[in-house]
Amino acid sequence: MSNQRDPRYDILFEPVKIGPVTAPNRFYQVPHCNGMGRMFPDSMIEMRGMKAEGGWGIVTTEQCDFHPTGDVQPFTETSMWDDGDLPYLAAMVDAVHEHGSLAGIELVHNGQDSGCLYSREVPIGPEHRPITWHQHPIQARAMSLGDIRDYRRWHRKAVLRARQAGFDNVNLDLMYGLPNQSMDQWRQTLDALAELAPEHISLYALTLEEGTPMHRWAEEGKIPEPDPDLAADMYLYARESLASAGYHHYEISNWSLPGRACEHNVVYWENGPYLGVGPGAHSRLGDYRFWTILSPRDYNNKAAAWADAGVMPVNELVEDALQAVPTLEGWEHLSQEITCSETMFLGLRLLDGLRLSKASARAGVDLAKKFQAPIQECIQLGLLEQDGDCLKLTKPAYLIANQAFTRFLE
Questions:
Q1: What angle (nearest 5°) sits at the alpha carbon of residue 261, between those of residues 256 and 266?
Q2: Packing angle, helices 41-53 and 86-97, rounded to 10
Q3: Which residue, of 236, 261, 286, is where some domain finishes?
Q4: Pick from 324, 323, 327, 318: which is nearest to 288 by CA?
Q5: How confident is the model at residue 148 (pLDDT cuts 50, 70, 90)?
Q6: Which own/partner pairs from 37-45 qualify as long-range (CB within 8 Å, at least 24 positions apart)?
Q7: Which CATH number characterizes residue 378's domain?
Q8: Using CA atoms, how far apart are residues 271 and 345, in angstroms rounded to an integer?
Q9: Does residue 291 belong to any structural domain of this protein?
Q10: What percent of the chain shows pLDDT beyond 90?
Q11: Residues 45, 148 within the same domain
């Protein structure tokens, strides 16, 4: 049996430049908990260093609580509560860097999932209700405006400490159009954001989904309905503010410093292939989209039985091959029609534009010819503009992009 690597997988082992830093390969260890964290920092440091030594290009912490009110004990995780947490997190960064890998951190606050059994703080969240992760009779209290101000301050300090510890890449996600959020508050938020200078920023407008507490509160009149006009003004101000701070607006909801676009998500927007591994993971390969069993216990049991039975290599991705994989929950066959439509509306989310020749090669169809009518209609309506081979949204269409996207689904 040959130990030589299949050349189809060479791309996984190629270095990836991410702005001023370079990952040695495409193996990214997502944030995951290991039961060590702040309680057993030496073990956590050794384990993360071992991952880097073993070949992972990017090694990330488990979720890292940024304030004692987010303590999830009895589950043991890392924390960034104050400067006292810096030494062991910086040592983890050093252990990862020693083997040429990049170090990542996931800063979180678990709100009403937090029992605070270690910190003994009172959990906080959007409303008064029992906490969700424990059998203990612990009640979370609803956050006040003062709590929200404190929350922003805690998060900001945690980001600065992550920088101080030496983590390589910082991404911040924000929401706008929140109940009772004013334009002045949004300006202050973006000013504070620019001061932190994260490599990547994602901004999302609030939408109220049926079945969620906020949707129910709005129906009951406890909070105001989202104001789409104010949300649009916030979006336009963000574009102007972040551009002046040196950020490139490369996707409808995403900004980055030069060279720091999220390469992982760009694969999705270009409708490229991707493989997800583990419970609840989704993949898109060949002509199929498929997903695995959600339960970690069921997934592990089926994977172990599959391994014991002897896993046969898959030479061609067809339905019979998918049926033979016991860890899969389901799959969807992607017709050429679906592939073409998704390639168009996903690719047009990238604001530098969709290269029709490149996209056509991926889809196996001349997209300019297939969608000639909707392309011309969108151009006439001022939703799209075309420069040679490049088709892209017009700036006024950023806020109403779905009006263009839906035309490629008809």
A1: 140
A2: 20
A3: 261
A4: 318
A5: confident
A6: 37/62, 37/76, 37/77, 37/78, 37/79, 38/76, 38/77, 38/78, 38/79, 38/85, 38/88, 39/76, 40/76, 41/88, 41/91, 41/92, 44/78, 44/88, 44/92, 45/88, 45/91, 45/92, 45/95
A7: 1.10.10.920
A8: 10
A9: no
A10: 58
A11: yes
Beta strands in 136-287 (DSSP E): 139-142, 171-176, 200-205, 248-251, 254-256, 282-285
Residues 6+ apart with CB under 8 A from 405: 344, 345, 348
**In terms of DSSP H, where are the helices of 69-144?**
86-97
201 shares a domain with 186? yes
Q: Assess contact for 247 and 254: CB atoms under 8 A.
A: no
What is the spatial distance between Cα 379 and Cα 398, in angstroms, rounded to a whole number? 14
Residue 300: inside a domain? no
Structural domain for 356, as ranges: 336-408
Q: What is the rounded distance in angstroms from the CA atom of residue 135 to the CA atom of residue 118?
A: 15
Domain boundary among 210, 229, 261: 261
Task: Please indicate, yes or no, if residue 310 is contained in any of the structural domains.
Answer: no
Counting every residue, how long is the chain? 410
What are the tens digits of pLDDT across the range 334-351? 999 999 999 999 999 999
Q: Is 64 helix (H, G, I), strand (E, B) or coil?
A: strand
Strand, coil or helix: 259: coil
The three-state secondary structure class of 109 is coil
Residues 69 and 150 in one domain: yes
Mean model confidence pLDDT for the chain = 90
Instruction: State how far the Cα of 280 lies from the Cα of 297, in Å rounded to an integer.
Output: 12
Please check whether residue 304 lies inside any domain of the structure: no
Q: Would you call 86 exposed, middle or buried from its count of C-beta atoms within 10 A (0-12, 13-18, 19+)?
A: middle
Phi, psi of 60 (to 5 degrees): -115, 150
Q: How many domains does the chain have?
A: 3
